[in-house]
């Protein structure tokens, strides 16, 4: 078969092979572009070994740096939620970074330029991920004291006999139950909540420590906050970016904490936060701040009030950005963090003595 025109029956056979190979490659942790390259190579071998000279099958050409840049800039221009709030002129940034893009630049240089442009958004939910690097901006917490010493917590307050209920670590501190939650990415089950609710019953109060909790699954925040209210409580409002203009948003929608169906705690609660409490931790702090009998103590959270959305560039790199805005009941953006009721800093003398100023 020497013609470069497809024979219909042969074409059907190649399509079946393509589908079978694709189904098997689903089991491998590789992206779509890599799968297509593998398929193209295998079909090439099949054709050659089969004595067919139809060898013009090849993978799609690699997109140019210009195409990649334009895709990223245009998508964020339409879907990123905080240009106005952060005072960012995205069009001006185009004029700054677009001239730095050239067709002969390598992947590392392209990644560097794109990462620098995204860094200007000063948003912890904005990232660019390749197979060799991940851009990020951590300035929202780096210039502030940590106000947390995990070693002091482990040695003095949790100790060796603390309870571990799933991802919740808890220990009695006098007549107060101390609960430490390291990441909202770690699942909280109903059994975990039952354990802490049973232990909290009859205590003088509960301390919930989410300092340096970088966030995770917002469902866990709702689940935990539901343990400390007996009524459905509005705590914030949220809207989505839904058009190319910077003021294109959906109407504001209320957000509610819903009481848990099960054991709950009605006593006093103190939530400890710091600047490294981010994203789902910020939402949780705002939920708790809206409930009666709850106080926030320490330093304000780091923010992260926008729900992350994702996209894929033509070259396979993945990017993330904030696609929503969330405000508290006073109209303040959660992106800027949730304020505390009482600001307390960890004293160095206490820390050196193995004590936590906020807990004491």
What does this 3D model show about the protein?
The chain is 34% helix and 17% strand. The protein has 360 residues and is of the alpha/beta class. The strands form three sheets. It has a seven-stranded mixed beta sheet. The protein has a three-stranded antiparallel beta sheet with strand order 1-11-10. Strands 7-6-12 form a three-stranded antiparallel beta sheet. Strand 2 and strand 3 form a beta hairpin. It is elongated, with a radius of gyration of 26 Å. The model is unreliable at 1-18, 20-30 and 43-58 (pLDDT under 50).
Question: What is shown here, in short?
Answer:
This protein has twelve helices and 13 strands. With 360 residues, it is of the alpha/beta class. The strands form three sheets. Strands 2-3-4-5-8-9-13 form a seven-stranded mixed sheet. Strands 1-11-10 form a three-stranded antiparallel sheet.
Question: Keyphrases for this structure?
Answer:
360 residues, 34% helix, alpha/beta, 3-stranded antiparallel sheet, single chain
